[in-house]
Amino acid sequence: MALHLGRLSAGRAWRAARGGCGELRAWSGRCASGRFCRPPGTASPGHSRGLGHGPSAKGGPWLGTGLAATLAGLTGLAAATFGHVRRAEMVPKSSGTRGSSQGRPEAEDSGGEDELARRCRCFMAPPVTDLRELRKRPGDMKTKMELMILETQAQVCQALAQVDGVADFSVDRWERKEGGGGISCVLQDGRVFEKAGVSISVIHGNLSEEAAKQMKSRGKLVKTKDGKTPFCAMGVSSVIHPKNPHAPTMHFNYRYFEIEEADGNKQWWFGGGCDLTPTYLNHEDAVHFHRTLKEACDQHGSDLYPKFKKWCDDYFFIAHRGERRGIGGIFFDDLDSPSQEDVFRFVQSCAQAVVPSYIPLVKKHCDDSFTPQEKLWQQLRRGRYVEFNLVYDRGTKFGLFTPGSRIESILMSLPLTARWEYMHSPSANSKEAEILEVLRHPKDWVH
User: Fold this and answer.
1) pLDDT given for residue 409 in this prediction
2) Of 192, 214, 233, 284, which is least surrounded by CB within 10 A?
3) Residue 203: strand pairing partners
4) What's the predicted TM-score (pTM) here?
């Protein structure tokens, strides 16, 4: 995949504002009065939730309205495309029907502004894809996924800005000369957050020869025409580093990849995950985080959480340290069954679980008192975070070694500050030793 990224538009910042959408507004002056944005990719109230399941997990689909390391700038997408060697599977559910409205264009209101335009008013910036193109293919998965990641980005930025209360998000649009682009939103040096990035990318073009070879090595047979294979890839990614050592770092990304073969057939798959990296172990926090993710997974199959929880523990492993990056969460890749719509609904549920799984933990601990020793331990643990991202994360490595890729977005996941001390070892039976034990021996937090 040639990831030569083009120009970056002028950056700008926005601050929390109350509006009809209940969102932080970035590019529109006003939203429809009294209207709230729906969760990512959802249909109007009353539509089927898919897979025959009932209401969403406790706490509602969104905090406030009911949310790889570096997808921003394509690294998470690279991981989705080339990085992971295992394939995720979902078992189809037997019951349930889908609403008849799935895939229909949104109806225009009497004022002439259609539903798509109203939804877009709540985004951090206009969609990467032109609205006219999105309107032409309302039921296409590329349209549904792009709208979902834009809404996820806006919802997460809103939640983070409301918690911080002081800092602005910088909103940068970037373009890729081969096709597509992205929107990077970064908050730095806030009251609560040292650094928080939430970015999306929507790109398309032709697979490079190297990319095609890597796909074949993962068992994906692609029929090319004249050596070219059209593809599109999109996703949302976030890494959040709070200042307080008692408030955990969190990462998530969810992505979609599609290729069109020479005979016109398409291959597609989803990937993603969400994981927590605390400086100090808080058992109640760990249970809350994992239980929220489990509830999201359980809506689509009781076997999914344990499978993807183990995958997460295995992936975020710092081999040279013999420890995990954090206390895990869920992780999956190459997910392409039982159907495209089923997997999309699953990914949507996972994205909707991010805010309720994480924001309560930040609110709980952002004003905790801490000692210089605890701050030092946080800096050392951030050093481990950096080590994993630069040494092991396949998406980051792919991006760094790709000519022309956008380095600023690739390294968005790194904290502003970190520390490395020679031969540092915590005292036995200390709180620092307690978290290390869990990082070396993952626990089951929900059974």
Assistant:
1) 79
2) 284
3) 180, 233
4) 0.79
